[in-house]
Amino acid sequence: MKITRETDYAIRCILHMAQETEKLHMITDIAKKQDMPKSFVAKILQKLAKAKIVSSTRGVNGGFALRKTPSEITLLHVIEAVQGPIFINSCMVDNKRCSRRSLCSVHPVWIEIRNILIDKLKKYDFQFFCKKTG
Amino acid sequence: MKITRETDYAIRCILHMAQETEKLHMITDIAKKQDMPKSFVAKILQKLAKAKIVSSTRGVNGGFALRKTPSEITLLHVIEAVQGPIFINSCMVDNKRCSRRSLCSVHPVWIEIRNILIDKLKKYDFQFFCKKTG
DNA sequence: TTAAACAGGATAAAATTACTCCTAAATGAA
DNA sequence: TTCATTTAGGAGTAATTTTATCCTGTTTAA
Predict the structure, then answer these.
(1) Is this model's pTM higher than 0.85 or not?
(2) Closest residue to D20 by CA to C1' distance?
């Protein structure tokens, strides 16, 4: 697993919205204030919406807001929403990648590491991050 | 951190050479038997040689061999030899990536996860993998 | 009806990954 | 010495993934 810029942006989006949970936040606003490209942020917020992490409202005065409290949103949620399932070796996801799976003595290590990562990422929620920020 | 195909190949190289530690293994042989592109394997073995994981001998009857016993070579060694230092977010390596570092409440988590990964990868050596393979 | 805001598909640019190729250097043997 | 064999290393190419951008459509409040 590698944290891409897209995921970094997603985290910033959540962090931004967590500061005012009641308000509807517009793409333009979030992008400008967090220094991210607007059209890319639009795509990312779509993904977060599909993952039910944020709600979206169309039309005049529309925007985005967290659908859960910051304490209910974990790093794992956000990463999986934008990147898909966690893994460190694509052989775990893509069967074509490694035909040797059944013979491969290293494979169980990738699985173990994935599980450790998932566990860890689950433990950090956005209330925790906001405390430290503000 | 993501395990690239290059690293997968590097691991196969070590695994292959660990089967006959006394012998000098030629690029062509390793590549053919482990089903990897020869010229790419050549580059990977160069990296492993620079990292002092394998020794190389030029000329007729030349080839590669492990420079240490399988038990002394860890997953971490091999991964770092081909991919460089372990990280999951490039903000930890590339200063340009995130100007917000000092403000960023998530950054310590990336550090923590990196340390966990390093610890884990250190614990698996190639004697362990060979036992299971054959 | 209109302007403001998100939805979604297509596509383009940039970066990284996954290679290949070519020439040079080393080495052992004829 | 010379030649075939083997790695060294630089440069370049192809494929894939990441990082966007743009355009058209839909929703909504005024």
Answers:
(1) yes
(2) A40
Distance of CA A4 to the CA centre of its chain: 10
**What is the model's pLDDT at position A133?**
44
- Point out the residue among B3, B98, B103 whose CB comes nearest to the CB of A89: B3
What burial class does residue B116 get, using C-beta atoms within 10 Å of its C-beta: 0-12 exposed, 13-18 middle, 19+ buried? middle
Straight-line distance from CA B14 to C1' D9, in Å? 22
The model's pLDDT over B99-130, given as tens digits with 9 standing for 90+, comes to 665 568 999 999 999 999 999 999 999 999 99
Closest residue in B to A108 (Cα) is: B129
Beta pairing, strands B63-66 & A63-66? unpaired
Complete domains list, chain B, with CATH: 5-85+125-133 (1.10.10.10)
Q: Straight-line distance from CA A19 to C1' C7, in Å? A: 26
